[in-house]
Amino acid sequence: MRTSFSVSAVLLLVAGSVALVGSPTKPYSPREKAFYADKALVDFVRPGLSITINSASISSAGVITVTYTLTDPTGLPLDAAGITTPGAVSLAYVAAYIPKGQEQYVAYTTASATGKALGTITRPNFELGAPATLVGPGQYQYTFTAKAPGGFDATATTTVAVDGNRNLTAFNLGTNYAGATFNFVPNGAAVGVTRDVIKTASCNTCHDQLAFHGGYAHGMEMCVMCHQPQNLDPTTGNSLDLKVMAHKIHMGSQLPSVVGTTTTPGVPYQIAGYGGSMSNFSTVVDPADPRRCEVCHDQTKGAVQAKAFLTEPSRAACGACHDDVNFATGVNHAGGFQADDTQCANCHIPKGETPFDASILGAHVVPADTAALYPQNPDTLLAGFNLAITGVTNTLAGQAPTVAFTLTDDGGNNIAPSKASTLQFTMAGPTTDYGAVSFGSDTTGTPGYVTESAAKAACTSTGNCSYTFTHVIPTGSTGTYTIGGEARMTVTVLAGTTSSQSVTEAATNPVVNFSVDGSAVAPRRTVIAIANCNACHVALSLHGGLRNQVQYCVLCHNPSNTDASTRATATVASYKNQAPQGINFALMVHRLHDGVNAVPAGARTPYIVVGHGGNLSDFSGVLFPAMSPSGNATYMQDCSLCHVKGSEQVMPIGLNQVQDPQGWIQAITKNTVQPASSACSGCHVSEGESSHFLANTDALGESCAVCHASGAAYSVDSVHTE
Q1: Separation between Cα atoms, residue 140 and residue 130, nearest integer Å
Q2: Report for 3-7, 249-253, 628-632: range of highest mean pLDDT
Q3: How many domains does the chain fold into?
Q4: What rounded mean pLDDT belongs to the chain?
Q5: How deeply is 678 buried, as exposed, middle or buried, from its count of CB atoms within 10 A (0-12, 13-18, 19+)?
């Protein structure tokens, strides 16, 4: 198996001046700095790194060797020393095997580690810095310091990994990363046993590019070589076995041991890293919901043992999330004590006939997912709840629009509006940018939009319903306006059984655009795709499940809106008299995803929003899961993970100014914030950066595009590469 990653550079600094970006340089992608660099420099340096493992062996004396090739992305050989080709390549090596009859690795490459919990232990590690022998153009042979012990099993699957960093910082082309693994059997037999439970592609739906340890570990194929039962953290005593560690990390803030009880305070889940650093995962919130096991254990990505989580339940894996269970005594385990894993599968079968049972899928099902997971039980499970807008009439300025709609289940059966616990329609406009119009003096708490309940809408016997707004389209309105809908109802699942649950079922938000002056209908620009959100969130749903479509979210989260209408009700008294928090979509989404970075980077205040009921949502602990090529887990630079069609580039002219009362600009100048400055300040939060925004704004507007437009010297896409 082989994985390859490459990274390259952005702007060439020559004698203190900046070389302007020229024509894009191929074959590099827009995510690589070399894409924007001077062609002559790129042709000379040939940025990028590819590692191919050609062969590996273990001699009868236990000597482990690996032969590999270093090349640039076009296949031309590289000099690891950086003498005959630019950029030295630093390399790390790992070797491990899978003992006969077992499924997980045991490492050959180990090192001692000392900590207060376990003292000095031996655990898996890299071999770093030892020289390899050049055996051909770009071809090297490395002899491991570690040896296989006498009597080693020559029939066992053995894996070697080579991971490298190519340092091109002297050319302002960053650092290139690559990694590869290679499976073999020392006696020359075919490989019959592998460890292939989760594919890297599954991780990368959220992590983008799975990498760790300063860029010396890439992909699941390499992770599983070291993160196996042999691996422990001597400082905390925590297991570093992947099936334990990964479950605990993704459960994070929901771990019973972290939450604690009324009598026992929670304990942070931490792991000590290299150099004595401590990583605290106690605030992690899995955006997909950790009950959705198949987000990671994806059976469509080609992993050979993708179903292992269904067929091989174990105390270690299950007890990682359910860490209040004591299998030795049976505490908190309905099945009593368990001395080993042999009985687990008797109760925990892959899937039962109904949800919320002891089966693996049933016990972990998200209630809203039951209809998809258990279609064989339509009478006792969710039948679907669908809201469709079939038309809008009375759409001219000064008129009160009438919305025609239907409510149905997945079988097309009509549902009466009285069955819905919430049924509302929201009107906003114009689509050039929401937030600037007023729908009346009674809508000051909902600036730029109005939401009305349609619970008493009239319906025909065929299920065709209609609702007429009490508010009118403002007189003098022009262009395109929008009406969107939201609905939910409470359903009792498995009524009359011990597994009975009340579940909120919400409809997908319909959004309809219409002209208010006879001009052509022009929908709002598309900036973010909900499919991109759901790559991580799976089924993004907010405000009690009511809001789940980006084009609906922006009706309320517009430039004029803040949490002013709810701030006075804050459950913490000190927040009641603070300035409101801006919640424009571009500002809010950037700032909440930037979470852990914002305050250390110089944000004036943490990003805390007061919601309905006065509840505080503090996003300052949010860790965006996308990773940099070097394994930096606070990486925010790949705009394309959320944005579509280059919408991260400088905003179109004519957008509304933004309310951001707690941000540097509005707090100091008392003025609203220009649209591009507001969006960028979602991540670029410091006082100095805000000063830069102001310095490039005058009576004519923002001059951001001069430097940051596509193709400019500091284009948005080029400065967000690494």
Answers
A1: 12
A2: 249-253
A3: 4
A4: 92
A5: buried
Say yes or no: 348 and 392 in one domain: no
Closest CA to 220 of 249, 185, 194: 194
Please answer whether residues 631 and 213 qualify as being in contact, where contact means their C-beta atoms are separated by less than 8 angstroms: yes
Would 374 be classed as within a structural domain?
Answer: no
SS3 91: strand
pTM over 0.70: yes
Please work out, in degrees rounded to the nearest 5, the angle formed at the alpha carbon of residue 185 by the alpha carbons of 183 and 5.
10
SS3 254: helix
Residue 193 pLDDT greater than 50, yes or no = yes
Q: Does residue 256 have a cis bond before it (omega within 30 degrees)?
A: no
Q: Does 390 lie in the same domain as 357? A: no
- Report d(CA 581, CA 564) in Å as an integer: 7
Token pair of 159, please?
């894996």
Question: Tokens representing 381?
Answer: 């499970």
**pLDDT of 9 higher than 50:** no
582 vs 659: CA distance, rounded Å: 6
* 14 and 145 both lie in a single domain: yes
User: What CA–CA distance (Å, rounded) separates 241 from 227?
Assistant: 5
Token pair of 379, please? 């009478």
Q: Domain of 708?
A: 564-719
pLDDT for res 378: 54
β-strands 89-97, 158-167 pairing: antiparallel
Q: Tell me how many helices (H) and strands (E) the chain has.
A: 21, 31
Q: With contact defined as beta carbons under 8 Å apart, do 206 and 626 qualify?
A: yes
Nearest residue to 467 via CA among 394, 553, 523, 397: 394
Cβ atoms of 348 and 327 within 8 Å: the answer is no
471, two tokens: 């508010």
Three-state DSSP state, 680: helix
Residue-wise pLDDT tens digits, 327-381 = 999 999 999 999 999 999 999 999 998 889 999 999 999 988 887 777 655 555 6
Provide the phi-psi class of 506: left if phi over 0, else alpha when psi is between -120 and 50, else beta.
beta
The separation between the first and the last C-alpha atoms of the chain, rounded to the nearest angstrom, is 26
Residue 20: predicted pLDDT: 35
Which residues is 36 bridged to in the sheet? Answer: none
Yes or no: say if 97 and 157 are a contact pair by the CB < 8 Å rule: yes
> Do residues 713 and 20 touch, judged by C-beta distance below 8 A?
yes
User: Is the pLDDT confidence value at 19 over 80?
Assistant: no
Point out the domain boundary residue: 318, 337, 369. Answer: 369
SS3 letters across 336-366: CCCCCCCCHHHHCCCCCCCCCCCCHHHHHCC
User: Do 538 and 572 fall within a single domain?
Assistant: no
274, 217: one domain: no
CA distance 130 to 93: 9
**Would 691 be classed as within a structural domain?**
yes
CA atoms within 13 A on the CB side of 702: 26
Asked if 227 and 245 sit in the same domain, the reply is no
**Nearest-angstrom CA–CA distance, 95 and 226:** 9
φ, ψ for residue 140, nearest 5 deg: -130, 150
The answer on 444 and 333 residing in a single domain is: no
C-alpha dist (Å) from residue 183 to 145, 273, 487, 515: 19, 28, 53, 63
Instruction: Verify that 527 and 577 share a domain, yes or no.
Output: no
Grade residue 281 by pLDDT with cuts at 50, 70 and 90. very high
pLDDT tens digit sequence for 45-78? 999 999 999 999 999 999 999 999 999 999 999 9
Return d(Cα 79, Cα 158) in angstroms, integer.
28
Domain assignment of residue 554, yes or no: no
Which tokens go with 102?
A: 């077992």
Whether residue 553 lies inside any domain: the answer is: no
DSSP for residue 387: E
Q: What is the separation of C-alpha 468 from the centre of its chain, rounded to a whole number of angstroms?
A: 40
